[in-house]
Amino acid sequence: MRRAYSVETVRAAEAALMQRLPEGALMQRAAAGLAAACGDLLRRNGRVYGSRVLLLVGSGDNGGDALYAGARLARRGAGVRALLLAPDRAHPGGLAAFRAAGGQVVDGPDGLGVLDLVVDGITGIGGRGGLREDATELVHTVTRDRTPVISVDLPSGVEADTGEVHGEAVRADATVTFGTYKPGLLIDPAAEHAGALRLVDIGLGPELPEPPDLEALQYADVAALLPVPGAESDKYRRGVVGVVAGSERYPGAAVLAVAGALRGGAGAVRYVGPGADAVIARFPEALVHAGPPSKAGRVQAWVVGPGLGDGRQAEAAVADVLAADVPVLVDADGLRLLDAETVRTRTAPTVLTPHAGEAAALLGTAREEVESGRLTAVRELAARYRATVLLKGSTTLIAEARDTPVRVNPTGTAYLATAGSGDVLSGLTGSLLAAGLAPRDAASVGAYLHGLAARHGSDGAPVSAQDVADGIPAAWRDVRAG
């Protein structure tokens, strides 16, 4: 599991560790890891000896890390130059070591020639507000030939704690981070700037508290959560999920939500709505009912909202489902039709699955504000509605109303940006709820499998929502196989 901590927590942990170490030892550990990562990249593209490396050095410890790493590369035969953005505030020890190793300090980008690597050590985890204009111009100049860029701890210009980007920021091919991940490395839009991530162990682990601020599940974590039927399982033990979806205008939403539920391992699916004929034609094993949902029969969880449309009948269906004493997932049109106070006062779990526009409507804010501040938005939604919230997007986030780490899904792909894929996710997550997973786990596993399924369905080509649904069993097998 990838775990991320806030800047304040990281700084406190570093301070505690430095009290037990010789002066400068922590920076040397970071520099050694950074130099190793730079060496690996240079070897993949040619060799370390004789390569041409430029350090962009700011005034903080990140600049010191870059200078010490540059000294190590220079001792291995690389031609390393450093451009100091604040010469009078450059790290003195790092600068002395760099010069002693044969590194060269340059005044500007002119005459540098072709570079093999740029190391971004402009700002660190304490940076705020994007790059200054002079730094932006410099970065554009030295990377205009698509020179690979490695960022030190965090791409300069992004917000470490939130993943927000206010202004210009470095776009790295890789980021070498120290001690622990920072939230901004895992959450868009900042994560888009980070490239491949490499975590360097500097001994910070014992100093970091529980729980982290953010976590991202990996294969082993998801595999441990997957519901696996036993010898005594029947359809009720595997979980029966009710699906209230579709309308005359959007009958396909019903089919896709049911597809997600069945592919997700539900023992049975009870469908309620006007799309019964379409559902049965595609999935004869589905159980259909004219409604209302409360009369449809026994379920362990409900999914309500995809393609439901407007009107009193749709609103009544949402209210009926929210009155049930089982977990309920609300998506799409259901998010517009729900009564907020009803959601807040439910005693059974509720999962809300908005995209950015729906989240903005629930919060009464602009879509752009949600997209630029995804972590803030998902936390606020969970607290305001006292629900588990899965905020869909380029990096899907899952938050609870209680004080648990926000989860970020690492399997997202642009292939999921297709009509109906959210309906599949709703059915899939609903099946996991019906199988007995806790709401945060069901949402996390659902999002993880959903992303893998799109990759299986695409194989490098565009996919439909049905392709995503059909890819779920293969995604499931991948996770089980590790």
From TrEMBL:
Keyword hit for Transcription: no
Annotated AMP binding sites: K392, G393, S394, T395, T396, G422
Coiled coil stretches, renumbered: none
Residues reported in the UniProt entry to bind K(+): N62, D120, S156
Positions of the YjeF C-terminal domain: 218-479
Cofactor binding description: Binds 1 potassium ion per subunit.
Keywords (A to Z) from UniProt: ATP-binding, Isomerase, Lyase, Metal-binding, Multifunctional enzyme, NAD, NADP, Nucleotide-binding, Potassium
PROSITE patterns in the cross-refs: YJEF_C_3, YJEF_N
Limits of the YjeF N-terminal domain: 10-210
Named cofactor requirement(s): K(+); Mg(2+)
Binding site for (6S)-NADPHX: 61-65, 124-130, 153, 253, 307, 355, 423
InterPro entries assigned: CARKD, Nnr, Ribokinase-like, YjeF_N_dom, YjeF_N_dom_sf
EC id: 4.2.1.136, 5.1.99.6
Quaternary context: Homotetramer.
The family this protein is said to belong to: In the N-terminal section; belongs to the NnrE/AIBP family.
Function of the protein: Bifunctional enzyme that catalyzes the epimerization of the S- and R-forms of NAD(P)HX and the dehydration of the S-form of NAD(P)HX at the expense of ADP, which is converted to AMP. This allows the repair of both epimers of NAD(P)HX, a damaged form of NAD(P)H that is a result of enzymatic or heat-dependent hydration. Catalyzes the dehydration of the S-form of NAD(P)HX at the expense of ADP, which is converted to AMP. Together with NAD(P)HX epimerase, which catalyzes the epimerization of the S- and R-forms, the enzyme allows the repair of both epimers of NAD(P)HX, a damaged form of NAD(P)H that is a result of enzymatic or heat-dependent hydration.
Protein name per its UniProtKB record: Bifunctional NAD(P)H-hydrate repair enzyme
